[in-house]
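REQUEST FORM: STRUCTURE PREDICTION
Request ID: SP-0412
Submitted by: Lab K.M.
Chain count: 1
Length (residues): 153
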Amino acid sequence: MTPITDIELACPPDEFDLLERSSGLSELWKRDSTFLALNRTSWLRLYDYRTESGFSAMFVPNGAGTVEWHLGFEVHIPEGYYLLILPLSRPPKGLEVPMGIFDSKTLEKINNGPGMSIAARPRRSVRIRRRQPIARIVLIHADSIKATAIVTG
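STATUS: Completed
RESULT:
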């Protein structure tokens, strides 16, 4: 993995070619109603995999220099629980995994699509090997989540 430089852009469909040429970047990835423009990053497509409906990307640009890393499995949790994604205390040098949280409804939607995924941000060239830990995935009950507001002024 190498760092990703991305810019989020939007344009009417008939101006797509102009957008591609004027961005100065060589790859455009559609994201809802916008595009993420990237430098050519061949590693993003290197690990595409075959599904019943064709090929799917294991790594999808996510914005802010991150990729969504499809892990290839589903996770089902009971209502009232959350899946917490945490970075390791000693992560692979050059790889950040932002903290994330999924509820059971979100996981069911994800399971009907590409399956479980996490965000990853390569900060420098980094090699990840099969079975190498990259994050902690923790099941927590809603009762263990507590929000505190501090009001000043």
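NOTES: The chain has three helices and twelve strands.
Reviewed by: T.R.
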